[in-house]
Write a structure and sequence with these properties.
By secondary structure, this protein is mainly alpha-helical. The protein has one domain: Up-down Bundle (Rhopdopsin 7-helix transmembrane proteins). β1 and β2 form a beta hairpin. α4 packs antiparallel against α5 and α5 runs antiparallel to α6.
């Protein structure tokens, strides 16, 4: 039997979960509305629907948003403390579903970030090729590490519904047992994204991007990369600390915001690159597609005047 304080804490947690979820979804919808005209111009008008960058854009902009809407607030989902549909089986099912959404969402954004770093290091020397091989191996390794961590934690986690109000009877979902490995949920992603931003900074400073002509395109890569990194880092660290220390109120608010940050980052990375590239070329050519984000190295070798290959 729960004490009054414990009951009050769970009720507050569920309220935080609802506010966090509705605010994160509202932010994504607001961003969709204010950027929809740019999306029409720079995503759909000038490129094929079969373009792989468009596939990534649809995934991060629309699929992730739909997953967020479908999962509902953390812990209880769409049941809202219903006495009929909220069962132990429901608690486990919605808990597993909500746990894997962030993992599935970050995949698209990480692919986009890897492509951008790959473009910065595109060359034919042995050293550059080794860097790109390392980048791909690191991407696969961190994603597999995240899958293993989430799988172990999800498998060992035990759920239960518990009565929080007597009249009318209202229940909520809780975790009655969870693996200590949960402390590593966000660590692989944080480390990998830190590596990507350091690689971007190194290549930018090495070739003095801000000092060369055509700096707008290069700076967009650097600024976008740093902005996305900070946004994902902050939400991921808060989720990591909250989850590892059992701060359920925090995770209730910041978990949906972490997913929203992932969706926003992935879609904005593509949209912003399209806008800057279109302005640079001045024509409606095919832009920012996989295999086309290429920075040509001219003579002399240290001159990295860059352009997109249409």
């Amino acid at each position: 039997m729960l004490t009054t304080l414990e009951t009050s804490s769970l009720i507050s947690r569920d309220q935080y979960a609802f506010y966090g979820w509705i605010s994160a979804c509202s932010w994504l919808v607001w961003d969709f509305i204010i950027s929809f005209d740019d999306e029409i111009v720079y995503i759909w008008r000038w490129s094929s629907l079969r373009n792989w960058c468009n596939v990534l854009y649809i995934y991060e902009r629309y699929i992730v948003l739909l997953m967020m809407l479908s999962m509902g607030p953390i812990w209880n989902g769409w049941t809202f403390a219903s006495t009929t549909s909220l069962t132990d089986t429901w608690c486990r099912g919605i808990g597993i579903y909500q746990s894997i959404i962030a993992l599935v969402s970050i995949l698209g954004t990480d692919i986009i970030l890897v492509l951008r770093v790959n473009a910065l290091y595109r060359c034919y020397s042995g050293a550059c090729q080794n860097i790109l091989r390392f980048l791909r191996v690191a991407f696969v390794a961190q994603f597999l590490a995240s899958i293993v961590t989430v799988s172990i934690v999800t498998h060992s986690r035990k759920y239960s519904r518990i009565l929080v109000l007597d009249d009318p009877p209202s229940y909520t979902c809780i975790s009655v047992e969870i693996s200590d490995l949960r402390s590593g949920n966000w660590i692989p992603s944080i480390l990998f994204e830190t590596m990507l931003v350091l690689m971007t900074l190194y290549q930018s400073l090495k070739h003095e991007f801000p000092k060369k002509q055509g700096q707008l395109f290069r700076l967009s890569i650097l600024v976008d990369g740093l902005t996305v990194y900070i946004l994902l880092l902050v939400t991921s660290i808060v989720c990591e600390v909250a989850w590892s220390r059992g701060k359920e109120d925090w995770i209730a608010v910041f978990y949906p915001w972490n997913i929203a940050a992932i969706s926003f980052s992935g879609s904005r990375l593509i949209l912003n690159m399209r806008k800057v590239s279109h302005g640079k070329t001045g024509s409606g050519v095919e832009l920012t597609t996989i295999g086309e984000i290429v920075f040509h190295q001219r003579t002399p070798p240290d001159d990295v005047e860059s352009s997109l290959t249409p």
